[in-house]
Amino acid sequence: MSKALLNTRRPIFYSLCEWGQDNPATWASSIGNSWRTTGDIKDTWESMTSRADLNDVWASYAGPGGWNDPDMLEVGNEGMSTEEYRSHFSIWALAKAPLLIGCDIRSMDDDTFEILSNKEVIEVNQDKLGVQGKKVKKTGDLEVWCGPLSENRVAVVLWNRGSSKAKIVADWSDIGLNSSAVVDARDLWMHSTMHSVRHQLKATVEAHACKMYTLTHTT
């Protein structure tokens, strides 16, 4: 199939699926453009988070032209809360996963449309550097995920997988920044910017929710 598609000399995206059973991240980049790293997702918090973790294992194998695929988005299918869907979309975007809408677009509500059409989050997913973000810190149910972007920027997700509100802290050393770095932190869901942030990024995050930022160096 791969050879047949190449022989058409047309730009066709070839998505492979064998549910990650034979570790396709280690060999599929020479055959197709994305490969499933997990079994089928369900519209539950437990299924979504487990697929995020399984996909994260293969982060180093992804890159321009070849992407890890933890299965389609469940956003809008009503099995999770709005905050859980926002976390789902944020982690899939950071991981450079294919953002395949899995709900009925004819009947999506306003919250679903707001999530799926967030241009700033989509820009992280489509960043030309093409490096998959990954989990870099875990303290109980509190996690920090991050990845490099073009123009020397960094994308960061502070993810609370616990059942109660909590403060999450990402020190510069956690996300690969020099200790003297000063950045502007753009909140991609609030569409607001914190200027001249030093030493660490921190936020109080609701249960099963996340905060997502892009960090831009100012010095």
Question: What would you say this structure looks like, in words?
Answer:
The protein is α+β, with helices and mostly antiparallel strands. Helices cover 21% and strands 29% of the residues. The chain has helices at residues 2-7, 45-56, 82-94, 110-116, 119-125; strands spanning 15-16, 34-36, 67-69, 134-139, 142-149, 153-160, 166-171, 182-187, 192-198, 200-205, 210-217. It has a six-stranded antiparallel β-sheet, with helices on one face. α3 packs parallel to α4 (110-116). The termini are far apart. 36% of the residues are buried.
Task: Label this structure with key terms.
6-stranded antiparallel sheet, 11 strands, 3-stranded parallel sheet, globular, 219 residues, alpha+beta
Q: What is the residue-mean pLDDT, rounded to a whole number?
A: 97
Give the count of helical stretches.
5
Order of helices and strands: HEEHEHHHEEEEEEEE
Class derived from helix and strand content: alpha+beta
Runs in which pLDDT lies below 50 for 5 or more consecutive residues are none
Report strand %.
25-35%
Helix content: 10-25%
For the sheet with most strands, the description reads:
6 strands, antiparallel
If you compute it from the alpha carbons, what radius of gyration comes out, rounded to the nearest whole angstrom? Answer: 17 Å
Secondary structure tally: strands: 11
Give the overall silhouette: globular
- Largest sheet, spatial ordering of strands: 4-5-6-11-8-9
Instruction: Report, as a whole number of angstroms, the end-to-end distance.
Output: 49 Å
